[in-house]
């Protein structure tokens, strides 16, 4: 493994949440993923859905991850229902620097509870 990759793994705060090394307000967990409230919410509901498998960015997904990605979306739909987002919600996935990705562990943002605007900026 390259030195940069090792550094990225060590900086991966979401891996620490999966391993319960740091706390989070967890709303869902199964064998493949974890969902918890964002620490800096951008909407009344702002939950992050992450795979337990470390995939640094969306650009790193492989064919073997297709089912896992579908699973994350299925969990997002279940959580949206449970969290009362019948009027609608937004899913955001930031990929790499220009999109503003700040944590090197693929994650879906589930945002809702207010009117969303477009373009997102
Ligand atoms: P992104 O900018 O798409 O990489 O999103 C990373 C998200 O992780 C941001 O919305 C942060 O507020 C959130 N975040 C960072 N650290 C934590 C943490 N310890 N617990 C919950 N959310 C976090």
Q: Which hetero compounds are present in the coordinates?
A: adenosine monophosphate
Helix/sheet category: alpha+beta
Characterize the main sheet. Answer: 5 strands, antiparallel
What radius of gyration results from the CA coordinates?
Answer: 14 Å
* Poorly predicted sequence stretches spanning 5 or more consecutive residues: none
Strand elements, count: 5
Name the overall outline. Answer: globular
Helix content: 25-40%
Helical segment tally?
3
Trace the largest sheet across and list its strands: 1-2-3-5-4
Beta-strand fraction estimate: 15-25%
The string of secondary-structure elements, in order, is HHEEEHEE
Average pLDDT figure? 94
Query: Span from first to last CA?
Result: 35 Å
Written account of the structure:
It is a single chain. This protein is of the alpha+beta class and 121 residues long. The chain has helices spanning 3-10, 13-18, 66-82; strands spanning 26-29, 33-37, 45-51, 89-92, 108-112. The protein has a five-stranded antiparallel sheet with strand order 1-2-3-5-4, covered by helices on one side. A hairpin with a 3-residue loop joins strand 1 (26-29) and strand 2. The longest helix is centred in the middle third of the chain and has 17 residues, at 66-82. The chain is globular and about 45 Å long. Adenosine monophosphate is lined by residues 13, 24, 38-40, 48, 94, 100-103.
């Amino acid at each position: 493994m390259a030195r940069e990759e090792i550094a990225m793994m060590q900086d991966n705060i979401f891996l620490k949440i999966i391993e319960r090394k740091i706390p989070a307000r967890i709303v869902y967990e199964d064998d493949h993923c974890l969902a918890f409230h964002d620490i800096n919410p951008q909407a009344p509901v702002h939950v992050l859905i992450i795979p337990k498998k470390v995939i640094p960015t969306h650009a790193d997904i492989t064919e073997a991850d297709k089912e896992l990605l579908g699973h994350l979306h299925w969990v997002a739909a279940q959580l949206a229902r449970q969290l009362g987002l019948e009027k609608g919600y937004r899913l955001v996935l930031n990929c790499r620097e220009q999109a503003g990705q700040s944590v090197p562990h693929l994650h879906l943002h589930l945002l809702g509870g207010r009117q969303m605007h477009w373009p997102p900026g």
